[in-house]
Write a structure and sequence with these properties.
2 copies of one chain form a homodimer. By secondary structure, the first copy, chain A, is an all-alpha fold. Chain A has 8 helices and no strands. Chains A and B meet through helix 5, helix 7 and helix 8 of A and helix 5, helix 7 and helix 8 of B.
């Protein structure tokens, strides 16, 4: 793909996410094109159907999450890296649900070929625990339970950025360290 | 209602919850009767339809939650009372979802007439904060967001008692106190 085509593609996917998050599945290709600053024809050449566009957004976001995990795996602050990744997954879960539902109802398995981010989460957790930034007694089972809880609520109640920040601040403090039993 | 009829009713509702939690909506009246130690006829006299039984369970549990909130409002340990109530709501959310879904699909509004437990939660929170058992900077918005998150995940992934205990232990530590900003 030529550099300008690649740039256009990235802009279209970004614009599509914004419009989808706002309008849900009523999102119009025309508005996505306007926001991306390209013609509708440019979108249709790369994404002949809405489903092709949705699938590309999902793949693109999953790739970006996987890339982010790789970068964060080498970050100087292991604790900040872990919490940053947790926050990004929750932030992404709302738009992801809209897309995955749309793809599923169109008979497309959105999860096919998705990189498994559990491995990345596990690696970030271990590193944060070794650095003393996450309590040592938290295992993957309860971590994934809490991550899934935050994602489900963010999807279900359409959490604002502010509410996500406040809810996760509490959760993250719980992940940082255990309160002595006498602390209740 | 006579005392033995009231006892029978309570036993039937309790048995129905156990069977429903295990078998979902395939739960049979015969098994519920067997577990409650009453005849099937006894159940049908009080609950002519499955929907009437389901509705009674929902009402009964909501009343018990409201009663529990009242009791806990005067408990000596305000922190323990607050966390106990949070835990009970999450524990109850799984069977509640099965029932509410069944009632909704039968065209019954399970939420009609439900006592509002938000007021009770708010009172327990304030008391726990005054006692220093819950951090003062947590508001109802993020508290309800986290409570809903735990309920949704417990429903969605069918949390075991053990997983619920482990996930909530982390969440509760976060609610107890804020980590200093340097603590990451």
């Amino acid at each position: 793909m030529r550099a300008d085509a690649r740039r256009n593609r990235a802009r279209v996917l970004e614009a599509a996410e914004v419009v989808l998050a706002r309008d849900g599945l009523d999102a119009s290709m025309r508005e996505i094109a306007a926001l991306a600053g390209v013609g509708v024809g440019t979108i249709y050449r790369q994404f002949p159907t809405k489903e092709a566009l949705y699938a590309a957004i999902v793949t693109d976001r999953q790739e970006r999450l996987a890339e982010m995990a790789e970068e964060l795996a080498g970050a100087a602050d292991a604790g900040a890296a872990f919490f940053e990744f947790f926050d990004r997954i929750v932030a992404y879960s709302t738009v992801k649900k809209i897309l995955v539902d749309a793809l599923t109802s169109a008979g497309i398995d959105a999860k096919a070929g998705a990189p498994d981010i559990k491995g990345a989460i596990s690696a970030l957790l271990e590193r944060a625990q070794r650095a003393g930034a996450v309590r040592p007694d938290v295992g993957m089972a309860e971590l994934l339970a809490l991550l899934s809880a935050a994602c489900l609520a963010a999807q279900h109640h359409d959490w604002s950025d502010d509410l996500r920040a406040r809810a996760l601040a509490v959760l993250f403090d719980g992940l940082r360290r255990a309160t002595p039993a006498t602390g209740a």
